[in-house]
Design goal:
Strand order of the largest sheet: 3-4-5
Protein name: B box-type domain-containing protein
Organism: Emiliania huxleyi (strain CCMP1516)
Distance between the termini: 31 Å
Strand content: 5-15%
Oligomer: single chain
Radius of gyration: 18 Å
Number of helices: 2
Largest sheet: 3 strands, mixed
Length: 127
Amino acid sequence: MPTSAEQQSFKRSNRRDQWATGDDSLLAEHLPHQRALCPLHPFHAAERPIAAPVDGNEATCPNCYCLICDARVSECRHWRGGDAPAHCNAHSNSVLWRQKRVNAKRQRTRAVRAAQRKRGGVTFSVR
């Protein structure tokens, strides 16, 4: 059985990263990843949040997720922009995008807590 270090090691193929599993059949695009790290579609970083997609950043593979919403791209309401900056342009190297991610997570947490209070505050604890 491989150690966790072996499971987390990557090796470089001639065209893309492959997860080292022994049979080398699990490619990086088969694992969930933020859009900016997609191995199938090039990403063009913009430092500041922009309302419209930049240079094809809206293109995705089935395993891309929204960095801000922390959800699949298909579940992101602001992927192509509109009334908010286009989440397809988000990347973790930008301080502004990272702050938007933190704010969105806080908002989701507040919504979950409010829903729990509304249902009578039933929560489950592990002992």
